[in-house]
Amino acid sequence: MGDISTAAAGSPPILSVNNIEVVYDNVFLAVKGVSLDVAEGGVVALLGANGAGKSTTLKAISGLLKPERGAVTRGDIAFRGESLLGLDPPDRVRLGLVHVLEGRRVFEHLTPRENLIAATSMHRDRRGVKDLIDRTFTWFPRLAERAKAKAGYLSGGEQQMLAIGRALMTEPKLLMLDEPSLGLSPLLVDEIFDILRKVNAEAGVAVLLVEQNAAAALDFVDQAYLVDNGRVVMGGAAATVKANPDVQAAYLGGGHQVDYAAVKHYRQRRRWLS
Amino acid sequence: MDLALFGELIINGALVGLMYALAALGIVLVYRTSGLANLAQGAIAMLGGYLGWITIAWLGLHPILGALVAMVVMFAIGLGIERTTLRPLIGQPVIMIIMVTIGLEILMRGLVPGLLGSGVKRLDLGISDAPLFLGDMLINRTYLVSAGIALIIILATLALFNSRIGIMLRAVSDDQTASWSVGIRVEWAIAFAWGLAAVTGTAAGILWGGSQGVDWTLSLLLIKALAIAILGGLDSIVGVVVAGLIVGVAEAIASGLFDPLVGGGTRDIVACVIILATLLVKPEGLFGREHIERV
Question: Are B97 and B86 in contact (CB under 8 A)?
Answer without folding.
Answer: yes
